[in-house]
Design a protein that fits this description.
- By secondary structure, this protein is of the alpha+beta class.
- It is built from 20 helices and 10 strands.
- The protein has helices spanning 2-10, 13-26, 64-76, 90-93, 110-120, 123-134, 137-151, 173-186, 255-271, 299-303, 321-338, 348-353, 372-393, 400-411, 427-438, 441-452, 455-459, 462-465, 468-474, 478-490; strands spanning 36-41, 47-51, 85-87, 107-109, 198-201, 204-207, 219-227, 231-240, 243-252, 362-364.
- It has a 5-stranded antiparallel β-sheet, with helices on both faces.
- Helix 2 packs antiparallel against helix 11 (321-338), helix 3 (64-76) packs parallel to helix 8 (173-186) and helix 13 packs across helix 14 (400-411).
- Mean pLDDT is 75; it is low at 15-32, 316-344 and 390-491.
């Protein structure tokens, strides 16, 4: 306080206004639960803001950043290539969603597996890469840990390549920023893997879970993550005027909130670029002092009964009112004062609520590397494989085509994709051959008509049907049938 009082006495009026703005933003109420936040300069590693940055945290799917780094280092060193074919093992196929859902024996290239893993956050593709590069998940995890130690990620320990819950899998915002800098520094020729807007597999298009891509000006990477214990995590980068910043958000309350937090941190970092003299020096990310503690477990908060639907990395939840109102106003105040008294034209939450900039999805497929007509044919084959699976579900319906289309609309939002190669295509012919079986049904219907004629004497009892409305109003018969039909889907 003595330091600040001396500084305030010496500041001119304009400087005093700026400092007051900083103090106002600092006292805005924060989120109810803990978060880890960090912003660094990508080229120098200089820390611009750090909150709980060295507190241990469960990484979730941001683990796939290290999987990408180790795999691409193997490519760069010539041990494998992007065209190397890898086979889906039973272990890889058994991974929990989010995943592509390929059956054991299906082959994918390193290139396609990386794209599926980074955009769709496919856990099965992470396992495929681990087994292909490291021989096994344990062998690859050992490579991940060796790489982490070499890079100075002293708070990080890996047990698997995809970030699914595992005892001993831990990291920190500090270590994730170090890893992001390493990807930018060591693998510039492969950096496009961390900012692909969307992929197309057959007929299905999957948008990148990182909402900043295509929405936040200058956004150019990295990766999201979520498990119940960690909350919503995001490592994001953006470049403006030749300056690239890396933001890390761990433990946000929703997929939308982690993107808003990252956007606020990046916006503040760019705005503060010319006013760093007002902030105390925080040093570089490598020099941040680790905290010896256990990672917080946010399971009850993230996956408790209060949520309307199960949480996942695809969470489309809008900004949580309790968290966004205070923090967002604080970030706006901070940006207002540190940007030379120029209010922002668009708040981060508004940017991220808009539709992503249009882009052509990157095509992914199974099998060897293909180009030109072969690639077009591969997309057609993958699309054909997806269609019969839905048609098979709809076979019991009266209009298989219409039902298949309805299933298709729903499946585009699902996390996992199961591909049944070649075999399911044949049953479509069987469904077509089922029409002759329908012809005998008409005589059965005709036979039923004579039975309906004797029923006419019962129609003479129509006077007895007049009380039926009374029964219907009491809700005895028809509601009972309605209840049966209503409860069937729930089971």
């Amino acid at each position: 306080m003595h330091f600040f009082s001396r500084m305030l006495c010496r500041l001119p009026l304009n400087g005093l206004i700026l400092v007051v703005g900083l103090m106002i933003a600092a006292i805005v109420p924060r989120a109810a639960h803990a978060e880890a936040l960090l912003v660094v300069e990508a080229d120098t590693g200089k820390v611009l803001q750090a909150e709980n940055a060295t507190y241990p945290w469960y990484p979730a799917s941001v683990t796939k950043m290290m999987t990408t780094y180790v795999t691409l280092k193997a490519v760069k060193d010539g041990r494998i290539s992007l065209d190397t074919l890898l086979t889906v093992s039973p272990t890889a196929a058994s991974q929990s969603p989010s995943k592509m859902g390929f059956r054991p024996g299906i082959q994918v290239t390193v290139d396609n597996a990386l794209k599926m893993m980074m955009v769709k956050s496919a856990n099965d593709m992470a396992a495929v890469l681990a087994e292909g590069v490291g021989g096994s998940i344990d062998g690859f995890s050992a490579q991940m840990n060796q790489t982490a130690q070499r890079l100075g990620m002293t708070q990080t320990s890996y047990v698997n390549p995809n970030g699914l819950p595992a005892e001993g899998q831990v990291t920190s915002a500090r270590d994730l920023a170090i890893l992001a800098r390493a990807i930018i520094r060591d693998l510039p020729e492969y950096e496009y893997f961390v900012h692909i807007p969307s992929i197309r597999y057959g007929r299905r298009v999957t948008q990148n879970f990182n909402k900043l891509i295509g929405r936040f000006p200058g956004a150019d990477g990295f990766k999201t993550g979520f498990i119940c214990a960690s909350g919503y995590n995001l490592v994001a980068s953006a470049t403006r005027n030749g300056k690239r910043l890396i933001a890390v958000v761990l433990g946000a309350s929703s997929g939308q909130m982690r993107a808003v937090r990252a956007a606020q941190l990046l916006e503040r970092g760019f705005a503060n670029n010319s006013l760093t003299w007002l902030r105390p020096a925080l040093g570089t990310v490598d020099n941040l002092v680790p905290i010896d503690a256990s990672p917080p477990n946010l399971r009850d908060e993230m996956c408790g009964g209060k949520r309307k639907r199960p949480a996942s990395d695809e969470d489309e939840d809008t900004t949580v009112a309790g968290n966004s109102s205070g923090s967002s106003s604080g970030e706006t105040a901070m940006t207002f004062f540190t940007a030379g008294l120029q209010p922002p034209t668009l708040r981060p939450s508004e940017m991220l609520a808009a539709a992503a900039a249009p882009s052509e999805p990157v095509i992914v497929y199974t099998g060897p590397t293909k180009t030109g007509p072969a690639l077009i044919a591969a997309v057609a084959v993958d699309s054909e494989k997806q269609t019969p699976r839905r048609g098979k579900r709809a076979a019991a319906g009266k209009k298989p085509v219409a039902t298949a289309d309805a299933k298709d609309a729903k499946s585009d939002t699902r996390v996992s994709v199961t591909i049944d190669p070649n075999v399911p295509i044949k049953p479509t012919g069987k469904h077509a051959a089922a029409k002759p079986d329908a012809a005998p049904a008409k005589p059965a219907a005709a036979a039923a008509k004579p039975a309906s004629k004797p029923a006419k004497p019962k129609t003479a009892a129509k006077p007895a049907t007049k009380p039926a409305p009374k029964n219907s109003t009491t809700g005895d018969a028809k509601p009972a049938a309605d209840q049966k039909t209503a409860t069937a889907p729930r089971s």
